[in-house]
Amino acid sequence: MNTEHRQDGDGVRHIRLNRPEKRNALDLGSYRWLREQLRSAIEDPGVRSIAFSAEGSDFCAGNDLADFLAGPELGPGHPIIELLHALADCPKPLLAGVQGNAVGIGATLLLHMDLVLLAEDARLSFPFVDLGLVPEFASSLLLPRRLGHVRACQLLLLGDSLDAATARDWGLANQLVATTELPARLEETARRLAAKPTRALLASKALLKAPEQALLHRTIDQEIEVFRQALAGDEARGRIAALLARIGGR
Asked: Closest by alpha carbon to 191, among 57, 7, 5, 17?
């Protein structure tokens, strides 16, 4: 059963992950729920900004690997692919407040936010190669564009993680805040956006995103195809099985 939470107020749609016992790892039900909530927020004229957050000590530990392996093959209509494209296309401002670990999809998700607030204990990790997989959610495009090739390789090839201060300094976040202040600061920032003139706000985001939108969607699909092939291979299956055995399944 999915236990994510949704809440509206002052023009803000709050979408909150709430699987702390799983470190907010995403299963297929989570992806379906997130896609539904995003669609609802986009269609609701009363929602003018969308804020993502998470319950517990970690933002998101990535995919729920056991559920992910047991699910349907990645392809058209898959809940994960639908959510990735929907987030990349979202016309309304997206924000995230991140505490603790943001791993895999929990980290690449942030590349599609318009504003990111990191708690002081936040840490971003992109461990795709270590799992025998490849980058996803257009991270192979967006990370080099934002950080340069060598820093992107440090994250995507070596698999080094980033602490909050470094992530902010490298341009992956707007603000670094105390963990206890994160919910209030996220709320304040989301309300500031929601209070802006709506047409100008949406038009400005569209202009900012327009130059790379087509390439963004092509990259998402290209990565997914390579990711699908890698996931079917012995290398990834063995690495993931070993990880699940080590952590007792997730």
From this structure: 7
